[in-house]
Structures are given as structure tokens and as C-alpha cells.
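Model the whole thing, not chain by chain.
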Amino acid sequence: MSWIQNLFRASPVKPMQEHMRASLACAGKVTELFEAMSSGDRQAISRVRAEIDTLEHEADRIKNEIRANLPGRLLLAMERRDMLEILNAQDDIADTAQDIAGLADQRAMVLPESLRDPMNLLVQRVLAACEQAERVIGALDELVETGFRGREAARVEEMIDSLGRIETETDHLAETVTRKVFELESELGVGTVYWWHMIGWVADLADAAERVGNRLRLLIAS
Amino acid sequence: MTPGSRWLCEIRRMPEFLSSTPLPILLAAGLAFYMAWAIGANDVANAMGTSVGSGALTIRGAILVAGVLEFSGAFLAGGHVTDTVRKGILDASAFADDPDLLVYGMLASLAAAGTWLLIASRAGWPVSTTHSIVGAIVGFGAVGVGVDAVAWGKVGAIVASWVTSPLIAGTLAFLVFRVVRRTILDREDPIVRARRIGPAFVFVVVFTLSLVTVFKGLKNVTWLDLGFGQALLVAFGLGVAGAFIGRIILQRVRVPEGDVRQQYRQVESIFAVLQIMTAMAVAFAHGSNDVANAIGPFAAVLKGASADLATKAEVAPWMLAIGGIGIVLGLATYGYRVMETVGKKITELTPSRGFAAELAAALTIVIASRLGIPVSTTHTLVGAVLGVGLARGIGALDLRVVGSIAVSWVVTLPTGAALSVFFFYFFKGLLSD
């Protein structure tokens, strides 16, 4: 009948934002996870882990859908390769949250009293980085609307700058907690290794969030 | 006698009219009307669907706008392309000895293009009425009459324009969109900018359309024959008037207060108004270009087969009117359904993008039809949409469609030609004595 409609494909922007929201939801659960670890409530830890697993599966589903709908024959407003890189970074947020929850549950880790404050501060700032990444991706539709130029692009670049600053902050916070963990080495025993690993993963969340922003910066510049 | 009773008399005389009219003319009239209907049913939806999809027009509004402007385009500016289709593709001297051959051939072309259109639209192939009819005319001319019967130079120019018209439209759309972005979307105050610059865009649209139409284009308005200087003046005046009206309308578009993010949605609501104007331009351009596909061959048959009816004008205004009515009828009976589905699918094209694409397509088509070159309206529009896409203006475009256009091109020309050769011998056997 009429074929011109076949020229238009659904923009991948909305699914990308959906995937970022799903990944952020995974990261958001990490706060709950650490609350459960603080109180030493094993059941609560298992419950939160199950929730994160479900959210991660949802994120995976959206990711696969986006990849399936990005054949090479499409002419996109955004570079295909950049978009897949952003998607990977977003996916790392969900995956890392799942790893954190997995270790916490398998080892039934209880957060020692003396680690609570610096650890909670780190988790809080890491989550802030992820939220900032979500805000940046949330501006994708406006970026496409303005063709990645002008005022909107400048506004998003500022947001990415701020994301970078938060990430640097989380590096320092992670350093502080790590030192604290090594101070408690005799008390924690072999658990030291696992806490050291856990802190690395939590910091990885912010790294992934920063990568989302940096990839988008490249996309704006291209 | 009142007009009403005159009409009644005409209708009572219909059976007599039918029996006194030669069979080729009746056949040609029927086929030409079918072609016009098909153009209205399918092509208009392609041209207007972008406005419906972006929410600039409702389906009812699109039908109304398209109906009025398609008819005006066909009637006021449809003559040039019709002349080309009627006699430009073939070498008239080849038919001097046996004018009946032209009658059979043009009948065959209508039948071939109509058949191919029916098959292709059933199968959902992106086929162009223009390509079908040109292929068919070349086919019967070269095979049925002789290779010398075809004005190959003109055919070459027409076929070349099928490549250049989407390219030109694409380049224009790319540039228009870049201008829109730089002057409005990138700015600190896009809403104010859109209101201020919008009328300038309206001026460009109205000025170009008027210039192309008025400058020796209004063949059917015999009292109006303007030289270039006068036409320029008239077009300028109309453009300024259009800009003023546009300004008044744009000032009245209500824009709700909102945060920065909402502003773009509001800018789009301003572009929706501008897009209605470009949609009108596309409908006008489409009517002026595509009416020829139906009426060109019909006019040739009429001229060849009716020595007694002695039509004085080359292409009589009433023929263009019939074509226009056919297009509007196709739009009213079937086109709205196509538009519904097209409109639902093309939501990705926001008014600012649709505006750039339609402005570029309308300018390209209307200039081509002023030059008497039959181009494919839909393919030109596709070129324009790709232009906006290349300026990173559209989320995702499926380039496979471009590939299928190329394939349909390669298929349509020989198929139209072959069908037309078949029908040529069929009509020759049926009608010659």
C-alpha cells in the first residue's frame, strides 16, 4: 500500500533511556543492600539480591532489544558505535550491582560498625554518580532535538563535567574506606580480601557512570 | 436556462454522448481517471502523511488541505509536465503518417501503467506513477513504432532528473534543517526566535511557489500573462502577504510556560503551523507534477482520435480539471485510510524536521514541474527526508527503503515498457480496421 512509512524506524533514544533507568534501579538497590548488611539481616540481604537479579534481567532484556533493533542499515542521529558503547557502560552498572549483591549474599557479609559511616558515604556518592548519568541520558531526546549543538549541548556537557567531579570524589572516598579496611585487617581476617573486592566493585559503579557521560561527550563532539 | 436545468439536460444526453464518442476516447478517459484516482489514493498520502504523523494536521484537515491544493496545483500549474508527457517524450514526426499509432500507444501506456500500479501497490512495492508512465511511453514508442520515434535526448534528461531531484531535495533539506537549527533550535530563546524567523520561511515558500506558478505558468488564466519582472513583483507581494499572515498566526499560537526542557516541545508547536504551510506547498507541487501522468496520455489520445471534436488548446483546462477531480476523489475515497496508517507510523518526524523536508521537496518538485520535467514526488520527498537524517535530525531511518527504491526503479521501467508493448498490439488489433 504505502511504503514511505517503512523509511522511519523507532528512535533508539527512548529504549536507551529506559535501559539507563533500569540500570539505575539496580544501583539504587545497593543502598538497601548495605543497610541490610549493616543490620546483619541475612534474609534481607537475600531478598534485596533477588530484587537486584530481577531488575538486572529487565535491563538485559531492554539491552538485547536495543541491539536487535540496531541493524547496520539504519541512518541514525547518533553514531551507532558510540551508542553501543554507551549501552555497554550502562549495562556495566547493572552487572556490577548484581556482582556486589551476589558476593554479599553468598558470603552473608556483615558490615562492621567502624566501616559503616565511610562505606555508606561512598555508596551514597556512587549512587549520586549513577543518578547524574541517568540525568545525562535523560537529556538525549533534547540533544537529538537540537542536533547535538548549541545551548542544550553545552548544558549536557556541564552535567557531564559534574559527573566527572562526583566520580573523582568517589575515588577519594573509596581510598578512605580501603585504608580503613586494611587498618582492621587483624579483626576482619580473610574477610579483608572480600571487603577490598567489594569496595572496588562499588567504585566501579561510579566508573561505569562516568564512562556513560564520557561516551556521550564524544558523541556530542563528533 | 438555469445552471441546474442545463446540467439535467447534459445528463439526459449522456447515452447519446457515449454512443457518439469514439471507443479509444472512452477507454482513455476511463484509464486516465483510474490513474488520477490511484495518484490521489496513494501518492497524496505519502506527501501529506508526514504532516499527519507529526501532529501538525488532523486527517480531516489534511484531506481538506490536500484536496484544495492538489486541485489548484493540477489546474493552475499542471500544464507544463502534461505537455512533456503528451508530446515531449516522443518524436512527433514519427507519427505524422499514421496518427492512430499514437492513440493506440498512449492508450497502451495508460493501461500498462495502471496495471503495473495495481500489481505493485498490492504487493507493497515502492513504485512511482511517473516512472511507470514514462517507461510505458518509451516502451511502445521504441518497440511498437520504432527506435527513432523516441526523443531519446528528452528521455535521458527525464531519467537523469530522477537521480538529481532526490539529490537536490536532499541537499536543500540538509541546508534548511541546518538553518533551522542554527537560527532557532540552538538559541537561548528558541520560542522567540521561532516566532521571529517563521514568517521569513513563509516568505520563501510563498514567493517561490508564486513565482513558479505565475511566471507564464498560469496557462489557464489567459488574461494573466506576466513577464519575468511583473511575475517577480507579484510573487514578492504575495510572499510578503504570506509572511504577514504567518506572523499573525505565529503570534497567536499559544505557548504554555514551562522549563527549559519543555521549550522544545513548544517550539515544535510553532513549527506545526509552519509545517501546515509546507504541506500545502507539497500538495500544490504534487498536483502540478503528477496530474500529467494521467492527463498527458489522455490528452494525446483525445487530440489524435477526435478530428471532429477539434480541441483548440493543446491541453485544455477542463482536462486538467478532470485530472484534479480524479486525484481529489482518490484522496476522499481511499487516501484517508492510507494516510491514517502512514500518519501513525511517521511519528518520529517532528514538525521542525517535517518542515525542512517538505520545504525542500516542494521547492524541488515545483521547479521541476515548471521546467516540464516529470519527477517522482514521493522519491523526491524520500530524498528530502534523508537529507534531514544526514543532518542528524531524525532518530532512525531505514536505508533499506532507499535500496528498494533503486530496485523498483530498475524493475518499473522495463516492466512498464513491456506491458505497454503488449497493450499496444492489443489495442492496435482491437481498434484498427
